């Protein structure tokens, strides 16, 4: 890899024991850790440790998924691991530049990036990089929160990720979805604000009232062959499944329901995967990271099957 990219990464134990990334290996998908959080929350700090924890928990996974896929995605995709970028919590400009540079490098080499955050702010520089390569990019954002809040005093925080993306015209908001929004909110009328930005908002109540299969099938029909950036915030799951996330939120799907929803995304043209907000200091069992590793494996199966 070029010097400017190698100089912004650091080594860690690889996901499921795969090899280090090397351009000559012609990998179709690459794991990359983004150990960054804004560092502004007075209590729930620690998402910067998410990538390491997810990789550690991945060591006990097997590559096949019973009853769903007999493909080994590690082999079919020649999956490799880029390591973690060398990021410092709270240093937005430096982190954003490094993330965008690294993603751009992978995309130039026709690789699908599979990234581990970090908090939800890491999604913005990733979208900046992907927008250069996919002019009609859309987002599927599974999250208890829209992360498309009005910008008040500070432009960059975990609540404004998709507000910034809309303002910068990085994605086609009118065909992008926030799915699973629910729970206590810091401001009123947040769903309406996200819709004013152009997004389609599907609350958790709507998702289960209409039925996840029907909702996902409608989304797949609408998106057809569009390039999809899949952003999966782990607090999409109910707090009982993922106590170790930045903002655990009750009323979400169980692990079984959430993974089933992910399986139903098969057939989409997924060009990037972002799994974020695992916060290991708040989960001594590491089950939140273990579930995130399963989400990553299942997402890799979606790419390999399609």
From TrEMBL:
InterPro entries: Ureohydrolase, Ureohydrolase_dom_sf
Keyword Phosphoprotein: no
Record bears the keyword Metal-binding: yes
PROSITE patterns per UniProt: ARGINASE_2
Assigned keywords, A-Z: Hydrolase, Metal-binding
Family: Belongs to the arginase family.
Name assigned to this protein: Arginase family protein
Gene source species: Kiloniella antarctica
């Amino acid at each position: 890899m070029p010097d400017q990219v190698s100089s912004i990464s650091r080594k860690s134990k690889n996901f499921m024991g795969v090899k280090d990334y090397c351009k000559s290996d012609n990998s179709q998908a690459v794991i990359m850790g983004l150990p960054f959080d804004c560092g502004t929350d007075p209590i729930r700090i620690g998402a910067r440790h998410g990538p390491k924890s997810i990789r550690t928990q991945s060591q006990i996974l097997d590559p096949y998924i019973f009853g769903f896929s007999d493909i080994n995605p590690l082999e079919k995709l020649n999956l490799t691991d880029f390591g973690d970028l060398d990021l410092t919590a709270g240093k937005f400009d430096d982190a954003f530049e490094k993330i965008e540079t690294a993603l751009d490098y992978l995309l130039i080499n026709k690789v699908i990036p599979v990234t581990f955050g970090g908090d939800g702010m890491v999604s913005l520089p990733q979208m900046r990089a992907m927008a250069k390569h996919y002019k009609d990019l859309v987002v599927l954002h599974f999250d208890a929160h829209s992360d498309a809040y009005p910008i008040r005093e500070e432009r960059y925080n975990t609540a404004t990720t998709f507000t910034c993306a809309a303002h910068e015209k990085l994605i086609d908001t009118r065909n992008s979805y926030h799915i699973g929004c629910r729970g206590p909110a810091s401001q009123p009328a947040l769903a309406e604000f996200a819709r004013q930005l152009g997004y389609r908002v599907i609350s958790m109540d709507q998702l289960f009232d209409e039925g996840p299969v029907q909702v996902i099938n409608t989304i797949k029909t609408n998106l057809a062959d569009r390039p999809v950036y899949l952003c999966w915030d782990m607090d999409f799951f109910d707090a009982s499944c993922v106590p170790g996330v930045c903002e655990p939120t009750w009323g979400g799907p169980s692990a079984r329901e959430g993974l089933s929803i992910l399986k139903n995304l098969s057939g989409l043209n997924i060009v990037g995967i972002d799994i974020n907000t695992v916060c290991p200091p708040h989960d001594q069992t590491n089950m939140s990271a273990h579930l995130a590793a399963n989400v990553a494996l299942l997402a890799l199966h979606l790419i390999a099957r399609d």
